[in-house]
Design goal:
It contains 14 helices and 21 strands. It has 450 residues and is α/β, with parallel strands linked by helices. It folds into 3 domains: 171 residues, FAD/NAD(P)-binding domain (3-Layer(bba) Sandwich), CATH 3.50.50; 118 residues, no CATH class; 101 residues, Alpha-Beta Complex (Polyamine Oxidase, Chain A, domain 2), CATH 3.90.660. A 7-stranded mixed β-sheet has the order 9-8-17-18-19-16-20. It has a 5-stranded parallel β-sheet with strand order 11-3-2-15-21, with helices on one face. Strands 1-14-13-12 form a 4-stranded mixed β-sheet, with no helix packed on it. Helix 2 crosses helix 14 and helix 10 packs across helix 11. 52% of the residues are buried.
């Protein structure tokens, strides 16, 4: 039998405790509202969460995440909950790469005004030919078409149409697109990638600088956000999977989880993924279009070697290997438990193929990628391995699909929605999720003020 919720009085019920839900909760608190967040999992954080793995004797992230300097909303959130200082912040735009042909090289943009810093960085980027570098000079022309016209094109069609072919496309733009949109350039929405480019490289000279968590993601976001919300009078209830939303005309009058019934909620923010929300509200999902959204997978492989790593940076890009990015947790997280060992994570975005591979094949493939960079590890043993397949990691950002992303409002006047999949100029990123939570909380605040 379900219990009627009898906890602290609240103003807004937030369904889902991922980053969008936590952002909505913190914004609500900052605006004077008292939120109660309902999270199905045992801990908040959504895809930005961690778990303890005994074979590593440490906490692993479900998937490594990179923040960049342009993530102003996300950084503001971390400032509020007190974890901004847990980021390893590069002072400049500097990314390390490795390829079989060139070995180690870097994209290093000087401290010049944007976008001149990018232009100089590209001009001295070692893998590019003179022809590639000359093509880069015309890159600004690519941003002249309207957002609507770019919506109909793939990233490949858009950039090839502006001379960005060959080395500059294969070595730089295609890997960046895959990392930012979780979709290969041939099938990725050009309008979304153009927005990422503007945000990262045209906003300021430090917007694209990498910021890496020095702690597991749960300690960076989930746990501190929960503690902050509770300290300010809100609640974050875990193990509360939403089973039903009840309506009476234009209002939500009840939310039922597997444990409790929440009657007459003053305001509701759904920060659920589009799949579960489509199941709860199939008619509206079909009418709005978001039931047609598809998902793109990400695969992460965590490996622990019994010899020390010799990586030159905590993050290394591999443009032509299966492991598109390698994270060295020994550098970024400075974990004393793994001193004398190599704690490396390989990430595969847009992993339609790799998500079908066996765990053994994935471990072997990532190990081979690592050992090409660090031959000394061929003589070591892998003493810990963990494969994580997120089959529904992000919505698929294909051309002509942005209209499927619904706005914050709903047909019910006391309910709004949030999530990195909802309407916005960004793909499914930490920043997109944080911004959507902010928007939803402000919209629901307007309902109370009305």
């Amino acid at each position: 039998m379900l219990n009627e919720y009898s906890g602290s009085p609240y103003d807004v019920l937030i369904l889902g405790g991922g980053l969008a839900g936590l952002s909505a909760g913190v914004t609500a608190i900052e605006s004077g509202l008292r939120p109660v967040i309902l999270e199905a999992a045992k801990q908040p954080g959504g895809r930005a969460k961690s778990f303890y793995d005994p074979s590593f004797a440490e906490t692993l992230d479900c998937g490594p995440h990179l923040l960049i300097g342009a993530y102003s909303a996300t950084l503001k959130l971390l400032d509020i909950i007190g974890t901004r200082d847990l980021l390893l912040e590069s002072p400049t735009v500097n990314y390390q790469f490795w390829s079989r042909k060139l070995g180690w090289h870097s994209l290093n943009c000087p401290n010049l005004p944007a976008p001149l810093h990018l232009l100089v960085g590209v001009l001295r980027y070692a893998p590019l030919t003179l022809k590639d570098k000359l093509a880069a000079l015309s890159l600004g022309i690519a941003f002249l078409p309207s957002q609507a016209s770019l919506e109909n094109k793939s990233v490949t069609q858009w950039l090839h149409g502006h001379g960005q072919k060959g080395g500059i496309f294969e070595q730089l733009w295609a890997p960046l697109c895959l990392a930012a949109l979780n979709e290969p350039a041939g099938s990725a929405n050009a309008a979304l990638f153009a927005e990422v480019m503007k945000l990262s490289f045209f906003k300021s000279r430090t917007a694209a600088r990498p910021l890496l968590p020095t702690v597991p993601l749960t300690k960076l976001i989930g746990e501190p956000a929960k503690a902050y919300i509770k300290a300010k009078g809100g609640e974050v209830l875990t193990g509360q999977r939403v089973k039903k939303i009840t309506f009476n005309g234009e209002k939500v009058i009840g939310v039922t989880t597997g444990m409790n019934n929440f009657s007459q909620p003053p305001g509701v923010i759904s920060a659920l993924p589009y799949g579960p929300l489509s199941t709860l509200l199939p008619d509206w999902a079909k009418k709005s279009g978001f039931s047609q959204l598809s998902s793109t997978p990400i695969v992460s492989v965590h490996l622990l070697y019994d010899k020390k790593s010799q990586m030159p940076a905590p993050l290394v890009g591999l443009p032509f290997e299966t492991s598109q990015w390698l994270f060295d947790r020994g550098i970024s997280q400075q974990n004393k438990n793994s001193e004398g060992q190599a704690r490396l994570s390989g990430v595969m975005s847009g992993a339609y193929r790799e998500s079908q591979w066996s765990k053994k094949r994935l471990i072997t493939t990532v190990a081979e990628d690592i050992e090409r960079l660090q031959p000394q590890l061929k003589e070591s043993n892998i003493v810990g391995a963990r494969v994580i397949k997120e089959r529904r990691a992000t919505f698929s950002p294909w051309p002509q699909t942005s209209h499927l992303r619904p706005d914050v409002g709903t047909p019910w006047k006391n309910m709004v929605i949030a999530g990195d999949w909802t309407a916005g100029n960004l793909p499914a990123t930490l920043e997109g999720a944080t911004l959507s939570g902010e928007r939803a909380a402000r919209k629901i605040l307007a309902f109370f003020c009305y």
